[in-house]
Amino acid sequence: MKTEKNIPYKIYLDEQEMPKKWYNVRADMKNKPAPLLNPGTLQPMTAEELGAVFCDELVQQELDNDTAYIDIPQEILDFYKMYRPSPLVRAYCLEEKLQTPAKIYYKFEGNNTSGSHKLNSAIAQAYYAKKQGLKGVTTETGAGQWGTALSMACAYLGLDCNVYMVKVSYEQKPFRREVMRTYGATVTPSPSTTTEIGKKILAEHPGTTGSLGCAISEAVETAVGKEGYRYVLGSVLNQVLLHQSIIGMETKAALDKYGIEPDIIIGCAGGGSNLGGLISPFMGEKLRGEKDYQIIAVEPASCPSLTRGKFAYDFCDTGMVTPLAKMYTLGSDFIPSPNHAGGLRYHGMSPVVSQLYHDGLMEARSVEQTSVFEAAEQFARIEGILPAPESSHAIRVAIDEALKCKETGEEKTIVFGLTGTGYFDMMAYEKFNNGEMSDDIPTDADLEIGFKGLPDIPEK
Ligand SMILES: Cc1ncc(COP(=O)(O)O)c(C=O)c1O
Q1: pLDDT tens digits, residue range 188-207?
Q2: Atom 6 (ligand 1): residue with closest C-alpha?
Q3: Residue 24 alpha carbon to ligand 1 centre in Å
Q4: What is the position in ligand 1's atom list of the atom closest to the CA of 143?
Q5: Fewest CB atoms within 10 Å of the CB: 6, 137, 143, 188?
């Protein structure tokens, strides 16, 4: 392995160097993300209205577009120390294998039992629920990483945790389900007959494998109907991006320590939380006119919300029980083909990421499933880590960019988010290894069906 003077294979910050504040990129955005709207009145959701669904302090964070830095409570910092700081790895082996002059770094968030970055927000949301004296929380999970993370956080703090798990994942990933139950969570496959909305969806789409949108509706309905419970969400919301800014803050601190300036920053995008978190401090510099970076969001070709979606107000869920968010969306009725990156099968996108993309401050690419698994396998064989299918979307584009550098001879510095590990995704890897994996790309006519269901909101 050829190493560069002074730059280790892994850059670890010391515990004392860990960021003690989250960075709120909204404070530096000229065009703020549009407010969540009450679907009944079409007026911005008030703190009081949001408080019926979410914990009070999280509502404050959701609505705060102005405070740039928010202190991370000591209890959360203590929990973070169990698995953070996470390493920033210089992918020397991959560079050598690709024979590229590019310098590739990845921020590895899979080094905890939940196996992904989701724990960064799970502990924060569980902490505020506990502080408010609640009994428990409800949520949805797609791939299972968020549900696992929340189960861990709730177990640590002694909170009850009800997880609605997208049915296809519940069936394909029994081990992840059991991890959640081991940490004390109740796990229900969605759509289920435990909620009115679940029954309705089952009646309209018998045999459906579910989607994140359906599971969100069920989790919200349960939280609202249960004394002492609130709903928590693992992505999309402003508050989640805020918590995930720890990824970007650590990445920046590690790069700064060695005087490294990235040219390209890449993240996979499901609801936008890891990407939003990773890019936050860099985007802040870009927004303030201090630096410029090429920022790329990567999504599956089967669920292309940024690259083929519409920037419009839409429901965050299939049952249309949530507030309306202005975002890039395929329509809340859109149910993507059951591809193997469950965490990226979401019809919408974070309003913050959507606004930044709309304003031309970042780009988006969509990639096909088989090429993602080719990249995942190449990465696993050379860098050792078995990546989650979601994370492998970022690997795909990082490799593509490094190969472009090989053509041009440019020595670009590429940083990408390696959000998690794929140990529970072996059925997907099996399909790939057997040559049975397909690429399902919706036609324009397929997408039109989803767009038709978009609510008609007059432009202000
Ligand atoms: C490993 C992993 N990466 C990425 C994602 C995508 O989510 P987000 O876009 O919110 O980071 C998920 C979601 O479940 C995930 O499990």
Answers
A1: 999 999 999 999 999 999 99
A2: 270
A3: 20
A4: 14
A5: 6
**8 Å CB contact between 373 and 392:** yes
Query: Residue 357, CB half-sphere, CA atoms under 13 Å: how many?
Result: 27
Q: Per residue in 248-262, pLDDT tens?
A: 999 999 999 999 999
Taking the complete model, does pTM exceed 0.70, yes or no?
yes
Query: Which atom of ligand 1 is least distant from the CA of 388?
Result: 1
Distance 177 CA to ligand 1 centre (A): 17
Query: Which CATH entry fits the domain spanning 10-20+83-115+245-452: 3.90.950.20, 3.40.50.1100, 3.40.50.880, 3.40.50.10320?
Result: 3.40.50.1100
- Give the domain 25-70+117-231 fold: Rossmann fold (3.40.50)
For CA atoms 438, 439, 443, 449, the dihedral sign is positive
Task: Identify any residues that bridge with 327 across adjacent strands, giving them in sequence order.
Answer: 312
Cα 357 to Cα 306: distance, rounded to the nearest angstrom: 8
Coil, strand or helix at 277: helix
450: Cβ below 6 Å to ligand 1?
Answer: no
Q: Is 302 in the pocket of ligand 1 (CB under 6 A)?
A: no
Q: How far is CA 145 from the centre of its chain?
A: 10
Counting every residue written for the chain, the total comes to: 460
Probe ligand 1: pick from 273, 346, 356, 366, max atoms within 8 Å of CB? 273
